[in-house]
Design brief:
56% helix; 240 residues; elongated
């Protein structure tokens, strides 16, 4: 599914949940930036709507009161995640871009992809077990298709595998199968893209969301991804 289609689906779900009014939904659908927005989940779509001033930032935390009957728990989780994405000391749109970039690095990182990496002998049993314990939490209905290459690159970013070990898998002398070698090449390209760029930093402040059963908004893998991407994101957003 292409990014525009996933964004439309996420916005439609927000409307169904009652988190976007008819007018806000129509405004979001007509926004010129929507076709290029890398939105996959309702939380991301709600954060985007806030960053684009479709939803007033000060109104965001209270949106759960709009939830349709029977959708209160899901609405609460969605709002909590959106608040975490756009709250801090930088502009909301900057924080959103950083969060979306970090989230896209987790697209395709799944248990089934990890199992495939082990079957291809690209990770050993110990690495498989460690990676399995760190897998990002994703709702199946909003998750990207499993990607062994994305999962292998993620294993490097989270420290399950060292960059040197990944490079060794790409060596002409390694015993990796042709299928595995293609995955390694793709993973190398992904790690290079996520670690390159210029250095420019920003200090953000996290927010506290008090909620029974609210999802964790700070996972080890996401923290690592954000740290790696802050400099790159802010360079492209501010320095050009």
């Amino acid at each position: 599914m292409n990014p525009e289609a996933t964004g439309l689906r996420a916005l439609s779900h927000l409307h169904t949940l009652g988190l976007l009014t008819d007018a806000e939904h129509a405004q979001a659908l007509a926004h010129p930036d929507l076709p290029t927005a890398a939105l996959r989940t309702p939380s991301e779509a709600l954060g985007w709507a806030t960053a684009k001033d479709i939803v007033a930032p000060e109104a965001l935390p209270g949106l759960r009161a709009r939830a349709a009957p029977g959708a209160e728990d899901e609405a609460h989780r969605t709002v909590a995640n959106a608040v975490a994405m756009v709250s801090g000391q930088a502009p909301a749109w900057v924080l959103l871009e950083i969060s979306l970039m970090a989230n896209r690095l987790e697209d395709g990182v799944t248990e089934s992809a990890l199992d495939q990496l082990q079957a291809l002998q690209l990770v050993d049993p110990a690495q498989h077990a460690q990676a399995r314990s760190l897998l990002p939490e994703q709702e199946p209905q909003w998750a990207a298709p499993a990607s062994p290459a994305a999962t292998l690159a993620w294993a490097v970013r989270t420290g399950v595998m060292s960059p040197a070990q990944l490079q060794a898998l790409a060596s002409p002398t390694s015993a990796v199968s042709p299928e595995g070698r293609q995955i390694v090449v793709d993973a190398l390209a992904r790690t290079e893209r996520s670690s390159g760029g210029h250095t420019k930093t920003v200090h953000t402040r996290s927010v506290t969301w008090h909620s029974t059963g609210a999802p964790r908004t700070s996972r080890a893998s996401k923290v690592i991804a954000i740290v790696a991407l802050v400099a790159v994101a802010l360079y492209f957003l501010f320095a050009r």
